Structures are given as structure tokens and as C-alpha cells.
DNA sequence: CTGTTAGCGCATTCAC
DNA sequence: GTGAATGCGCTAACAG
């Protein structure tokens, strides 16, 4: 029961007094490196701490130690399965290191992102992970770069996910190669006329995937017409709207549409169905990411698998493992890209035999 | 460029010296309440801070002020859309208050939850939000309750989401009434034979929804047979497995299956389809939560809408708004439950006319 | 308004 | 091993 007795939390000082030992001893018993304190005192301190409901003040520890136990994570949208899966990975790995994760959402707004980086930097997090989307028009020497550099100079470690236009640690996701492989696979299935549903210009990820898809088609001797590239927001509704626009304009022979991520692809599926057509049969659909739900839509979605949770884990590891302060990896020693894999499902049954 | 020059972050002290003012003045110029410092000094301090890339140390501020700017959020599984939507709401609302959210995942393990609460308490968060699932066998005077009580006694505010078996602030989600309304609606559609896919015993939310569904059926003069209640994990795969078991056992006339949450329902849809049946037509399906994806599955899922993001926002507001330290609301003044709404979609077309 | 000073809670030197 | 003292970065009285 929480009665009205509002008191301040017990401090280490209180514990020391209660146990009849010095502050230093209490500190050592509760945290100090490996056992250096008499077993008797030790148990007395622990008992006192339990009795007083003592909980070490992490802020105070951080100040005294000059180092926090925090990891900052920036994503574009927490409710988006792409980001929440990455976040789950980061949190899981952080937990192993007894690190606490703080999370913020940029909503894909570069200014917000900058503000958040600034604010989060105040935490002096051990690591800062940026999973939020990078933009093509983003200068590598702008204020964000400045901020990140300052953070690193002060001993922080930043990890980018996906692209490494900055000279910073990066979990490389080869969007371009993945999309190319998808295009190759679809061409192998016999498709010849393609359309792409992508995000508005400016988003690196979307741009790379489109470019990669073009690469793959070109390798198969297929050209992607600019008029067959439609754009929408990088969301389910954006995919729905763009696909609807494509349909209204008239397919003109397009057999399959590639949406640059799965949430847009799912929107595409619904748009096709709402237009009275049958996804897969009348118009095939492929996505990218392999988020959990694409197995359960109808037809199950062909996509490019990206190990989202692992990416999150890897991002944290990357920052923690080279604690030798050797600085960010140079492009030459850049880590291998995370492996992606084309997964063909029923949404691309092969072109209709007529 | 981050060159090798690794330095410690600039401190307020540095800024003060650089600006040629006292520590106090620098502090006031950068944070101190409304303008009390000479405009000239003010700009000088700001300039110095910018020049030095100064970023206030939040930990130090927290220690000095005796109050943090942190909100701790506990969820069962970050990648689950139910929780990530709530989290998105919490983060969005926290952002308005310039509060930082720290997140942890209990993985539905009560022991983990306790550990996490203990660990998070060290942050001295202003608010602690528990969205992780409560269990029926959970004592209201166990160690978790103790821990939460201690936290509140020390001035913290905890908010529970869903159930209020504890005497703590709660965002009430009337799972029971929602499920009852769903049962009523389905009965109104003409269904007479029901099955339920639920989680293993012990989860409050699952239990309440099952009970409510029973209530609703009973009101319609329909009995739910115990043999028509199948259990699985509280996940998509759990729903899939349980439904598969139900199908293998034989439907025996069951017309519609209610899965106690949408992720399980989505699994049910796939299980039905994989068994060679047509969801909706051969076996209707209903879920609970109205997560984003259920509009895009086939057939679109009948469910009970729960304003997940709003719940997250409301949880934070609840904790912040009664900063008058009046303590947790008594049951009598408990806040209204969040409104839920039955949403009938194509997955429950009404019983087959044979 | 500004500067000086005393803490905040804790880790960690340094003597004992 | 243990305790006393110093300092981490910052805020908040407290005097000027």
C-alpha cells in the first residue's frame, strides 16, 4: 500500500549509516569491483540496502564515474514494424550488457532528428544508434554531422543503420544489391513489364532500392520506364495511394509492381483488391524487408528478407566491441553488409499465361 | 571529420570561463528559469556554448535538481504491434513535455519484469509505465508491488495499462466489456456456435477477454463449451498453432472463432487457409485490438478497436497531470475506461446459409 | 542581476 | 580491508 508517507529515496549514505559502515564500504559492497570487502560487512550492507529499499541513483553514478549506462536509439516511427523490429534487437542486446535504451522518434523530419540528437547527447549515452532514414540531400558536413562528430570526439560512439555516407560506424544494408537480386528473380520468373511504387524523392533507402531494382532489370535487358514509377509516402497508406494512382492511370501491360518496402506493398495489395482486381493474378506484387505480417496477407508477399532484429543487435555490438577507441572504421575496413535474401511467395506466381 | 582528438565534453565550467562569466550566470543563461540574465552576458554565454559544442549533462542536472526528465516504459515485446503502438503514443506525448523515454522488454517473464523495474528505478524516472501483461496469479503484495510502492513513496508515479488490481494509476481498458460487445455483435449476425483461441491461462488480458466473450454469449443465450476453447502462446504463431489444433480436432459445427488478440487472429487466418479452408466463409474469425495490419489481411478482420496510441499518450498524461502529489486515484475516482468499439469486417460475413 | 558557496548522490583516490 | 576526503557537473540558495 502506498500510504501518504512521501519520503525521498534512500541514499547510499542512509545505507551506510544503517549498516554502521562508511560510505566507501557501502559503495564497494554494492557496486565496487570484485569482492574486496569483508564478508560480514558485505552482508550487513546488503541487508541494510534491502531494508531501506535502496536503489542506486544511476544519474549520480554516471556523474561520479563519468560514464553512463545508456544507449540512445533514434528511429523514424516506432509503430512501423521495420523500426520496432530493429528496436527490439537493440533492446535485447543492450539488456545483455545491462544497458538502458532510450528511444526517440524523428517522424522523418530532419530538423526533429537534429534536435533529438542534441537532446539525447545530454544523456552522454555510451552509444547512439541512428536508424532513422537518411536523406539524399543531406550534407555530410551539415549541423547533424557536426553534432555527431562532437559527440564522437567526446568519446561517444555512433552507429548508423543502412548507409554510410558519414565516416561513422555503420551496419551496412545493401539495399541496392537486394533490390537487384529481386529484379533478377522476378525476371527469371518470366515477368517483363514492371512498375515501382516508391517514396517521395530524397529518401536514401527508397532511392537505393529503386536504383538496385533498375540495375537488376537492366541486367536482364529490361527497361523500367519513368512513367511506371509512382510515388507516395513511405507508409502503408502511401503505398495504397500510389498503387491506386497507378491503377487509375491504367496498367498498360504492367505485370508486377515492386513496392520499395513491405508496408507500402501491403498497401498496394489492398489497393489492387479494392480496385476489383486480384493481387498476384491480375497484378503481381513484391516488397522489401520481410516484416512479420507479409506471411499472413493474401497472397503471401514476395520480398527481400532483411534480418531486422539482428541488425539492431549488430548495431549495438558494433559500437561496443571496438571500445579500444580506435575510432570509426574507415571505408576500407567497413564491415560486411548484412545478408539479404530474396523470398518468392505467392504474390508473384509468374506472369499470367493467357 | 572526427579526427583522433579525443577530448572530454565541454562542461558548464568551460563555457563560463570562455564567456568570462561565473558558473552561476552561465547556468542561468542556459537553463535557469525565465530571463534573469543581462542580454549581453546571455548572448556571450550562448556563443561560448555553441563554440564549445556544449551540451548540458543531464545526469548532473538530475543529481543537482533532484529530479530527472525521464519516463520509463515497460512492455512485453517491442516488436509486437500492440506494444509498439502504445510506445509510439508514450514517446509522442513525452516529446511534448521534453521528457526522454527509456524502454525495456519483459518478454512476459514476471521475474524479468521485476528486475527491470528495479533497474529502471535507478534512473529515478518521473513516471514509470507498465504496459507489460499482468498475470492472474500475481499477488498484489508480492515483490513487484513492494518495488512499485517504494518507487511511489519516493515520489515516483507509476501507471498501469489495462488492469488495476494494484492501487495505482491505471489506464483502464475494459477488455471484458469489449469482448462482450463483440460476442453480442456476432450473435446478432446470426452465429450460434463459437470457439475461442486464447493464451495460456494466467494472462489477465486474455482471461478478461475470454470471460467477457462468455458474458456476451450468455446474454444471447449461447453457451461456450470448454472444449471449444483452445490455447496457444499470445503470439501470431500461438494463434496459428491453436487454430490448427482446433481444425484437426474437427470443427463440429463451430462457425466462428474469436482470437483474444489480433496477432493470434492473423495466425488463425493463415492456419485456416493452410488447412485448405476459406477464412470467413468456412470459418469466420474475429480478433481484438484493431492493429494496423488487420485491414490488409484477407478477409479484413472483424475486431474490437482499441486506441493504442492514445492509450500510450493517456498513460503519460495521467501520471503528469496530477502532479499535485495527491497519490493514486482511489477505485472510486478511477478514470473512465478507454472506449472500445466493435468493428465488423468481412472475416465475419454472417453464418453460412446452407 | 551577478558571483560565491554549498550541496546533490556517488566513486575513488589517499592515508590509516 | 576500511574510512575520510575530494571531485564529478550542475543547481540553488545565499550574499553582494
Structure report:
Two copies of one chain form a homodimer. Chain A has helices at 12-19, 23-30, 39-51, 58-65, 81-96, 110-121, 143-153, 175-188, 204-219, 236-249, 262-274, 308-321; strands spanning 70-75, 100-105, 127-130, 157-162, 169-172, 194-199, 229-232, 256-259, 284-286, 303-305, 341-343. Chain A is an alpha/beta fold and 354 residues long. Chain A folds into three domains: 12-56, 434 Repressor (Amino-terminal Domain) (Orthogonal Bundle); 70-173 and 309-320, Rossmann fold (3-Layer(aba) Sandwich), CATH 3.40.50; 175-306, Rossmann fold (3-Layer(aba) Sandwich). At the A-B interface, helix 4, helix 5, strand 2, helix 6 and helix 7 of A face helix 4, helix 5, strand 2, helix 6 and helix 7 of B. Chain A binds a DNA duplex (16 and 16 nucleotides) through residues 11-13, 21-25, 27-28, 31-32, 36-38, 41, 56-57, 59-66. Chains A, B: InterPro entries: HTH_LacI (IPR000843), LacI/GalR-like_sensor (IPR046335), Lambda_DNA-bd_dom_sf (IPR010982), Peripla_BP_I (IPR028082). Chains A, B: Pfam families: LacI, Peripla_BP_3. Chains A, B: Residues 10-65 form the HTH lacI-type domain. Chains A, B: Keywords: DNA-binding, Transcription, Transcription regulation.
Amino acid at each position: 500500500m502506498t500510504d501518504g508517507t512521501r519520503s525521498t529515496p534512500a541514499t547510499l549514505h542512509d545505507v551506510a549509516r544503517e549498516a554502521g559502515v562508511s560510505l566507501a564500504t557501502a559503495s564497494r559492497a554494492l557496486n565496487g569491483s570484485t569482492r574486496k570487502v569483508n564478508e560480514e560487512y558485505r552482508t550487513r550492507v546488503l541487508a541494510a540496502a534491502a531494508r531501506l529499499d535502496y536503489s542506486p541513483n544511476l544519474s549520480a553514478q554516471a556523474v561520479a564515474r563519468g560514464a553512463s549506462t545508456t544507449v540512445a536509439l533514434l528511429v523514424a516511427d516506432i509503430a512501423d514494424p521495420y523500426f520496432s523490429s530493429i528496436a527490439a534487437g537493440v533492446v535485447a542486446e543492450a539488456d545483455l550488457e545491462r544497458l538502458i535504451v532510450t528511444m526517440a522518434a524523428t517522424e522523418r523530419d530532419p530538423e526533429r532528428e537534429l534536435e533529438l540528437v542534441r537532446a539525447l547527447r545530454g544523456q552522454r549515452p555510451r552509444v547512439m544508434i541512428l536508424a532513422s532514414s537518411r536523406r539524399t540531400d543531406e550534407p555530410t558536413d551539415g549541423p547533424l554531422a557536426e553534432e555527431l562528430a562532437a559527440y564522437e570526439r567526446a568519446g561517444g560512439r555512433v552507429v548508423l543503420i543502412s548507409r554510410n555516407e558519414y565516416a561513422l560506424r555503420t551496419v551496412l544494408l545493401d539495399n541496392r544489391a537486394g533490390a537487384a537480386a529481386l529484379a533478377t528473380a522476378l525476371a527469371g520468373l518470366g515477368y517483363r513489364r514492371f512498375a515501382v511504387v516508391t517514396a517521395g524523392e530524397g529518401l536514401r533507402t527508397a532511392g537505393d532500392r529503386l536504383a538496385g531494382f533498375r540495375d537488376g532489370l537492366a541486367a536482364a535487358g529490361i527497361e523500367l520506364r519513368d512513367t511506371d514509377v509512382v510515388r507516395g509516402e513511405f507508409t502503408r497508406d502511401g503505398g495504397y495511394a500510389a498503387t491506386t494512382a497507378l491503377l487509375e492511370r491504367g496498367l498498360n501491360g504492367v505485370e508486377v509492381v515492386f513496392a520499395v518496402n513491405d508496408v507500402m506493398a501491403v498497401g498496394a495489395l489492398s489497393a489492387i483488391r479494392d480496385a476489383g482486381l486480384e493481387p498476384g493474378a491480375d497484378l503481381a506484387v513484391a516488397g522489401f524487408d520481410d516484416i512479420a505480417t507479409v506471411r499472413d496477407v493474401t497472397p503471401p508477399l514476395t520480398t527481400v528478407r532483411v534480418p531486422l532484429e539482428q541488425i539492431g543487435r549488430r548495431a549495438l555490438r558494433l559500437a561496443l566491441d571496438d571500445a579500444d577507441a580506435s575510432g570509426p572504421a574507415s571505408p576500407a575496413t567497413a564491415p560486411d553488409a548484412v545478408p539479404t535474401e530474396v523470398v518468392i511467395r505467392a504474390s508473384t506466381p509468374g506472369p499470367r499465361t493467357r
